[in-house]
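TL;DR need structure tokens for one chain.
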Amino acid sequence: MLLWQIARGDAPLIVSVPHAGRHVPDAIALRLSPPARRVPDTDWHVDKLYRFVAATGATLIAATHSRYVVDLNRDPSGTALYPGADNTELCPTRTFAGEPVYAPAEEPGEAEIGARRATFFDAYHALLAGETARVRERHGFAVLLDGHSIASRVPRFFAGRLPDLNLGTNDGASCEPSVQALATDVIATASGFTHVVNGRFKGGYITRRYGRPAHGVHALQLEMAQAGYMDEADPESFDAARAAPLARVLERLAIVLSEWRPSR
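>> reply
TL;DR here they are.
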């Protein structure tokens, strides 16, 4: 199976969707615990929500494999994204609900984790780096939007209900202020949706690694509460009509980011 699906465009915007994939190779799937076999921590249907991207002229990259194979948005060095908080690993061993991902004695060792990194993680990031360089060479700059979603209530990571739209820019370090301001305006004026900027989710490894405004790359992460577009009790089902209001917000965001130009 291909490691990703890509639709290349000529606009300055690249949309990355690293966690919507559900495929787990058999050699790994056979070792998963019963709860993990349903890949419950998938960013359900985020690739579908962004499928309009190609029509706008932007580039869309969506990984096909589950985050249980390897998490494309974690620092491979093991450095915690959020010091002091509960952080997941490059190859997760617990579900978001705190259940074991693997059957007893089936967790991957260091050699296997290294092999998965080389096969899946490094390949995705080589692609993402290459696309970022291509777009920057064409326009003089690039905008990278990293698209994610999560259940609206996950006590392991945050208290209470998550806002619907969570914009992260590593506290403003990953993009020019005007980019953050434009994106904030889009989500703040989205009727029926709550929002926060640099709240619990400030941007993962992708946002922090690629966001180098001084070098012409401006990165943002949008984490969405799944209750805003789907039935969390039936995550495998996608209701396009229910998701349509959020899809319109994302389309507006993509257009705004594609039309933005650096101040210098």
